[in-house]
């Protein structure tokens, strides 16, 4: 393979064009006047992300293209004294405006988008192992006439497959420099940078632009002409094989895409990933939890008692910590998904799942968000972007919060302890039942939506199954970092707001401690004075619990709980549970600590020994002396927590991913109606059954 | 895969091959056999995506796995395609395999 070819472009019928002109052409504005913008264009699976990371490092920023949910990655680097903005366009097979991504890429490359000035140059990424296919997009990109450097990626794999590409001929055919690279190992990147510098620097030698003849789109098949050209170019430039045989991939695929073995393999892989998530994540989760408790206690010691301390410790630190504790799970999930995607397995998983998912009207690709939803609905909704079709994506987003996320685990744990104390097998069955209920409800609702508000069959599958590769750790880590940042930023802001809001609701208006608490306090002081400090502390604690209970009962949240009690009564809930349900909007597991306060256990006692909470909840009685947590009420609460939409962070993400408040509102509405009706039915049935 | 050539000649005598003509839906060719696309009915918007990936008139494709979805190989890449879409593609079985000169 010839690596440094000098091609005389003048021989071709190329209009030699000058290099990138700086400053910008009139009528365009850039964020930074002497910044040069280079777009990275290439097929999906051609190694675009790896090349982008290799060129920009850790400085990349991920956001959405304004007004879309298409991801935009921008990184910076320096080339020939210029600050260069590298724009990673979505992976494309063509520029033919079929998919929203293609339309967007086309508009950007033509300079038709107001927020994104036309790029000054293009890095065209070509996969050496499937060059002919890649040349199709190349022909369209070269026609744009922008200064272009082609990076021929994966030349190592091509060499191993005995594909010999004549670089000189290819450069002549394309009319632009072709640099062989291996993005994974960094081979050839220096040469690529040199070519880019020459493209940017006015003193460099001029570069040719597209030499492809314009393709006539008036014939029957507009694709034929371009592919005929691609095949011709291929036959002129490629010696030996034109494409990789991929015998290994074929052999692995025979197993992994098998009708039944494939599904079994998929389930095993996913089970392993989830086992790892829950097993590995518990350690960092404990650290984060401990960290926030520590910060809370330090701040609590430094600040004088009062509203401000309570706001900071209980509202801000407690609230944000309660949600950030899920960050490890989210990171591990995205790390493994990135690894699986990089190996090429994720495409196979979508392929085998397509047959099954189609029965509920969803495409195979919906399985990634569905699996993620079992960790947390927020990243799941974010990852629903892999689904191209808008209706398919909307249906998926709408049902995602029905899958049991890990914030429900503490609630499930509490309820199983109430139902079956110290009986692990039955408790396990309750857990399984809760998860199954979530899955069934979600799939049924998906079918319902597909048959009503978002009708239509799911988009037929067209999916490239790339050759298997060893995954790249760096790419996976960078992808994980990206997701973590988005989660912290997106969830962080809304969670902070919600935490403060809920703290206000639970703290105001103020109420005086009840008489009983004051009596206890006085007794404690008397004991302390007589030297019985241990007894005194115990009484002070009890007084504090009574005061907290009273404060919450008289607060806005407590009043709201009472106000909604008539509505909740048919489900077997009293106003205390009502407060718990309302407070769950910050994060579902908050109900556990809320119930601890309303039933007067004290939060610190719960942390030391959760069984103390379960025991006192079991012992809790209504004013008429009947127990609060009967079997019927416990079952009812469990089902309510499986089905109800109780997470404002999820709602905020739904809003963001659907670009409208209509969908989160609808999500809240349908899930509330669903949760209420199913819970009502089950409570009344169980009550009749257990009493009769 | 030199065997493909032989199998085509053995399993599909000239007469039968002509009977099938160039109107065989993609899903009906045999696994591992090569065929040339002769027609793509552009009845659905999604077919455009398939065409952009190389399943368009004149290209050689190979069926890797039957079923719904099925797996094709075109221009060196494997593509998973739902049968509904694939039925819009008509092919003519051809000699040789994907990688040779055939």
Question: Can you walk me through this structure?
Answer:
The complex is a heterodimer of chains A (692) and B (102). Chain A has two domains: 9-240, Rossmann fold (3-Layer(aba) Sandwich), CATH 3.40.50; 246-499 and 626-692, no CATH class. In chain A, helix 3 crosses helix 7 (222-237). In chain A, a hairpin with a 6-residue loop joins strand 2 and strand 3 (71-79). Chain A has a seven-stranded mixed β-sheet with strand order 2-3-4-1-5-6-8, sandwiched between helices. Chain A has helices at 48-56, 100-109, 131-143, 155-160, 167-174, 189-200, 222-237, 247-256, 261-302, 307-324, 327-343, 345-357, 367-372, 377-383, 390-399, 409-419, 424-451, 473-507, 515-529, 533-554, 556-563, 565-568, 575-583, 590-598, 603-608, 610-619, 631-643, 648-658, 662-691, and strands at 36-42, 61-64, 71-79, 82-88, 121-127, 148-153, 163-165, 178-180, 238-240, 462-465. By secondary structure, chain A is an alpha/beta fold. Helices cover 59% and strands 8% of the residues of chain A. Chain B has 102 residues and is of the alpha+beta class. Chain B has one domain: Roll (SH3 type barrels). Helices cover 25% and strands 29% of the residues of chain B. A six-stranded antiparallel β-sheet of chain B has the order 1-6-2-3-4-5. The longest helix of chain B is centred in the N-terminal third of the chain and has 9 residues, at 3-11. Chain B is globular and about 30 Å long. The N and C termini of chain B lie close together (12 Å).
